[in-house]
Amino acid sequence: MVDQMRYCACLAILGGALLSIGADRVESDKDRIQGDWQVVSFERNGEQLKDAVGDVDRFVDGKVLLVEKDDPCETCEFVVALFPDEDPKQIDFKYTGPERDDIEPGKDTMRGIYQWQGEQLVICMGVGGGERPTEFTAPKGTEFSLERLKRIR
Known about the structure:
By secondary structure, this protein is α+β, with helices and mostly antiparallel strands. It has helices spanning about 1-25, 30, and strands at about 35-45, 45-50, 55-60, 65, 75-85, 90-95, 110-115, 120-125, 145-150. It has an eight-stranded antiparallel β-barrel with strand order 1-3-4-5-6-7-8-9. A hairpin with a 2-residue loop joins strand 7 (about 110-115) and strand 8 (about 120-125). It is globular and about 40 Å long. The termini are far apart.
């Protein structure tokens, strides 16, 4: 009986140790988002934008570089902030590149939400300086964009 209790205690300790090791290996959203993601669909204001399909979002060290498929030299760089504890999860993109005519002062941050759907990353965002969406839709009459990204391996 004593041997059986020791055996059960050892199993409990070993199980707890294995669980804690596994917990350390859970990938954070910050780590999970790193790398290259290809746009598989892009919708803005209720319309599908097929020109954006195939573009690449390259997430590296708290930044994202948006690379257009038709002109890889045409890129935009943003600082990315993730807020994974919000519901839904939130993401902000702050433009940090050279001055551009299409980005007004004070409207350099796009606020959005994101979610993981299997191997896809789904991001819904507003325009620079605009509202943060609360749902993963980009209906007509809004300035929201909805993009689905697939990791490039």
